[in-house]
Amino acid sequence: MTASKAAHAPPLQGSRSRLSQLVGSGPTRSQTIFGWIWLTPILLYFAYFSYYPIFSALSMSFHRWSLTIPERPFIGLGNYVWVFNDPTFWISLTNTLYFAAVYVAACLVLGLVLGTLIFSFREPFKSIMQTVVFLPVMTSMVVAAQVWDLMYMPGYGILNYLLGFVGLGPYMWLQSPQTVMPAIIILSVWKGLGYFVVLFIAGLTTIPYHLYEAASIDGASPFQAFWRISLPLLTPTTLFCLVTGSIGAFQVFTQVYATTRGGPGKASHVLLLYLYDHGFRFFEMGRASAIAFILFGLVLIVTLIQLRLLRSQFQY
């Protein structure tokens, strides 16, 4: 009778028994406790150095928190109201949005063009060009800003010297309100373009080559193959570059601080410089914290809009 029941036992029951023998019964209670003991220092580190500063800054933004005054009363949304009523905030926001829009657009277009061009090269020239293009990314932003500051000099800067051969200039690159933001954007594009180029080259390597072979057999030109194959299948890479580039563009600070300090006037004043001034020049930590969370909300909104508009699924 027992042998008959075993012969007619469901196959799933035997599979479960074999699976339990292979996997085991899971970690024991002592192993779980031992694992949490090892994780505790790491969790405490992140809690103290990552999460505590965030909630501390959020609390500051609801207080009149000045390093020069011992009293720190709760004022609710007073700091946020003050920031939104400050004309300098809107100037800084406008300059930041202008920088982000032009910088990201230039990096995406030039990165795609250069990435496609370098991807078509043969080795070892392809690897050499990737290294050359990526070198500015590895350069310190402070050093790059100082070098470009010398190149932008109206009297003896190399850019005005070269433009003089074609009858242009000299231009007051960093001294004129009309040219200061384009000058900072050119510097920033030179510094960060290699990052986008490398990402687009990596995206191109994931596209199966047989798609291009099929397009060539069908009589498609190289431009048609790029427009119909490369560009659509690079949309995930483009979305990643757009999001990361926008996040970085809204945090523009070093090149502005190292070259113009927000001048002339407030023509190059950006949000992070506005935050820096209130936090480390005027010691108004409550207002600086409010500016930081306003910037965080702005970046979050822009990122969500980009993901909503461009996110899609691809299968090939």
- Tell me the CATH superfamily: MetI-like
- Portion in helices: over 70%
The overall pLDDT average reads: 87
For this structure, the CATH topology is MetI-like fold
Distance between the termini: 56 Å
- Radius of gyration, Cα only, in angstroms? 28 Å
- Our count of domains comes out at 1
Number of strands: 0
Strand-pairing-aware structural class: mainly alpha
The stretches of 5 or more residues where confidence is low (pLDDT under 50) are 1-16
Helices, by number, come to: 15
**Proportion of strand residues:** under 5%
How does this model look, in words?
- The structure is a single chain.
- With 316 residues, this protein is mostly helical.
- It has one domain: MetI-like fold, CATH 1.10.3720.10.
- Helix content is 72%, strand content 0%.
- It is built from 15 helices and no strands.
- The longest helix has 33 residues.
